[in-house]
Structures are given as structure tokens and as C-alpha cells.
Amino acid sequence: MKALDALKTRLLEVDDLNRASAVLQWDQATYMPPGGAAARGRQVATLSKLAHEAFTAAETGRLLDAAAKETESLPFDSDDASVVRVTRRSWDLAVRRPSSLVSEFQEHISKSYQAWTVARPANDFASVRPLLEKTLELSRRTADCYPGYDHIGDPLIDFSDYGMKAASVRKLFSELRVRLVPLVQAITSRPAADNSCLRQHAPAETQLAFGLAVIRRFGYDFERGRQDLTHHPFMTTFSLGDIRITTRVREDDLTDALFSTLHESGHALYEQGIDQSYDGTTLGHGTSAGVHESQSRLWENIVGRSRGFWEHFYPKLQDSFPAQLGTVALDTFYRAVNRVERSLVRVDADEVTYNLHVMLRFELELELLEGKLAVKDLARVWRERVEADLGRPVPDDRTGVLQDVHWYSGPIGGAFQGYTLGNILSAQFYATAVKALPGIPQEIAKGEFAPLHSWLKENIYRHGAKFTAPELVNRVTGGDLTIEPYLDYLWRKYQPLYGLREEERQGAGVA
Ligand code: ZN
Q1: Which of the chain's ends, N or C, has fewer CB atoms near its CB within 10 Å?
Q2: For residue 417, what is the DSSP state?
Q3: Alpha-carbon distance 362 to 417, whole Å?
């Protein structure tokens, strides 16, 4: 397999450049002083350009053709046939984007991200507006590298959730929306859970130590990872031996850092679970934004906000915060961490209303790309839609259009649908795992996560990007993506929490 070996060597070099760029971006988001911003933007752009040029070179195409011949008799799921297949798909996407556009985008994005970190706390949308206009123009130019699309958002969605289209996501979201809105109405017609026990002063160090202790139990490997502080938490992979997470901590909120830690650890468990031999190839990362998010949401919510999880961990949290929680009952705390409300900020949103936030952003992205909505009107339209959807006024842009990092750190388009796809898939995967191993919930209540973690590694993690998201969902669950397990999960959890009535179950269309 001479061509395949040469192809893998080439992929390793491309991967080295991309991972080096990831180190620079991680540093920019954690430790870099503001003075480093301009040079850092250029450095990341240079590396992106080199990686893009090496990957899209004619020689890569020639090696791909030859490697395809060498592997044509291998089964579909063999590692070698999969490297060729997955590389071909990425190559076909990448080769149509000129490297000048890639580096121009990258350099612009570094500038825009830096501006956002200043504009958001200052509530100053005007200062980032021209940058966002440029981002929209660059996003459109990127999409236009793929003529023949049905919708201008399709190529951008392909980068993160390959195979999904603007039309298919819109259809899925409208089906989900019809069934979520009555559930949100039913829940919010009840008195909101009291979450004052969470709004207490809690030293950052104790919060962080607790979060790290939990994810160690989950199976996060600190020999191959670490946690640092940032503005907008994320996970990043420098190699399959170094998979890092970041968080932020608020001393007036007892669980903000904890749930962000659980969330990012879910992303990290996925990548730490990838077959080590895939490192440096196109198989050595998660397969799509939606599948990635299914793992962060599974560990954060389905596990981390479950009654069983807190039966085990609440006494330990009380030991960490005796003054704050010593006299607070488990049930009070459990209700507090599952409080449903029509909140303004996506990352603070509960499991039930979260998808309404995602749908709003997804629709705005498409309208911006379509040219139906101008950036100059974005802040106003954001406020109007949120008020219509959630019935609450948006007091400022900090809790409006400036709240999410995405449009300031990447293309407009393809950035948000993965969150809701992830929520849907988290429940579908978890239901499949519990069907295979019915003892999982009882194990979680004992603080034992190995059965669930092992099942996820065996069925999902180890494959990396070998299978597309639709292929993986079919292999794992025996069917296509479906919203039923997710709605079922929400109903089973929130019905007792909010004393919902049977007729409200029908209203929400839960089977
Ligand atoms: Zn995430």
C-alpha cells in the first residue's frame, strides 16, 4: 500500500499544522495578553493557509486516486478504506475553497473574536457590526465556492453536519417546535422552581475542584488532558494524547462552572475514546457537530442533571459547600438545577427551552445568508423574535445578539443546528445504551459511570470520523435520527418535577 502510506504521511503533516494552529487559538482564548492579538491572528491565518495548501495540493488528489485503487477490495468499515473515503470527502470540499479565502477568513475571524471579547462586556454591538458584515460577506463567498446548492446555507452546514441541508433541518426543527412549545407552556404555567440555593457565594477554587473530581469519575483522563479558564468554554484537541477543556467560573453561581465542565468533558470523553491509531488521520476526530454535541449534552444533562447522579454526588457537594448547602434538601437542589424558565441566554437555558434558542439563531443565520435580513437590523430583529418566542424583553445586546461567540469566531451559517441535533441524539443514544445495559441508571446513582462510558466508547467514540453521522446513528440505534426518544425523555423527567397532567402529555404530542 505505497500510495496509502504516502497519503497518511501527508495527512499527518496537514494534521500537525492544524493542531499547531489549535494550540495558538487555545492560548489566545486562555492566557495570551491582549497585545498579542494582531500577530496571533496572522500566525493562525498562516498555518491555516499552509494546511489548506498541503491538503488540497494536486499531489494529495493523485495519492487519493492511487490509494482508492489499493483499498477498493477492503470492506467499507475497514480503517484503510475509511481513511480514503473520509479523506476524499473532505478533499472534495476543501479543494474548492481557494487558500487565499481560507486565510483571509481566518485572519478576519481572529480580529473579530478579539473585538467581541471587548464588545460583549461593554454592550457595544456597534463596534463589531462592520466586522460581522465582513463575516457575512466571507461566509457567502465561502458558500459560493460550491455552486449548485439548493440553499446558500447548505455548504456551510456540510462543514459541521455533513449531509444535513437547510431544508431538512428546517423541517426537523418545525416538527420539534410544534411539540416543544406546548410543553414549555405547560411547565411555565406552574410556579418556577426556587433556585436561590444556587445563587450563593461559592469560592472559585472549590467549584473547580468539585467539577474535576466528577469528570475524573466519568473517565476523563488527566494524563491526556487538562482544564483552563476562558470566556466561552470549549474543548480542543492537540493530538489524541492531549485533549483539553476550558471553563469559566462565577463566584455568585454555584453550578455554572460545574455544568460547563461536565459539558466540555463530554466532548473530551468522545475524543479521548477515539481509536489511538487514527491520530493524525482524517478519522482522528468526532464525526459531526451534532454527534459531538450529543455527547456533551448526554454527560451534562442526561447524566449530570439526573436524580440518580445527585443521589450520589449531592452529599459530596454539601461537604464542599457546607455553609451554602448544609441545610438544603436534595429535592430542593435537584429541582433548582432543573428549573425551567424562559431565559434570555442560550448557555444558561434549561433542557426544555434550549432548543427554542437554537432555532432562533438557525433561522437568523439562514435569513442573513439569504439576504432577507441585514446585519444592521440584526440586533433589533433578535430582540423582536426573542420577545415573541419567550415573552420577555431583551434589555441589552449583551443578553441579545452579542451573547454567543459563534458569529464572531466563525462563519455565519452551520454554527447552531448541531446543538439541537445533539440534544435529539443524546436521548436517542442514551435510550439505546439503557436498552442494551438496563442497569446503567442504577450504576449512575452509585457514582459508577464505567458501564455507560464503555458502551459509548465501544459503539460511538472509538470510530472517530469513520462513519458519517447518519451512518453512525443507523449502526448504533438501528434507525434514522428521530425526535421521539428526546420528547419521551423530557416528559418522563419533567412530568413529576412540575406535576404535569396526562392531557398536557397529549398536548406536547409525546407518545
Ligand atoms: Zn458543546
Answers
A1: C
A2: H
A3: 6
Q: How far apart are CA 505 and CA 424, in angstroms?
A: 18
Catalytic residue among 107, 264, 293, 300: 264
> How far apart are the CA of 383 and the centre of ligand 1, in A?
24
Residue with cell 440584526: 378
The runs of H, that is alpha helices, within 194-300 are 204-218, 256-272, 289-297
- The gap between the terminal CA atoms of the chain, to the nearest Å, is 52
Predicted pLDDT of residue 81: 98
Q: How far apart are CA 320 and CA 258, in angstroms?
A: 13
Strand order in the sheet with 242-247: 227-229, 242-247, 235-239
Below-70 pLDDT ranges, the chain: 506-511
Nearest-10 Cα torsion for 470, 473, 292, 243:
-110
Angstrom distances, CA of residue 503 to CA of 101, 177, 183: 55, 18, 11
> How many Cβ atoms sit within 10 Å of the Cβ of residue 172?
18
The pLDDT value given to residue 511: 53
pLDDT of residue 215: 98
Cell of residue 280, nine digits: 493524525
Between the CA of 127 and the centroid of ligand 1 the distance, in Å, is 27
Q: What pTM value is reported for the model?
A: 0.95
175 in catalytic set: no
pLDDT, position 508: 60
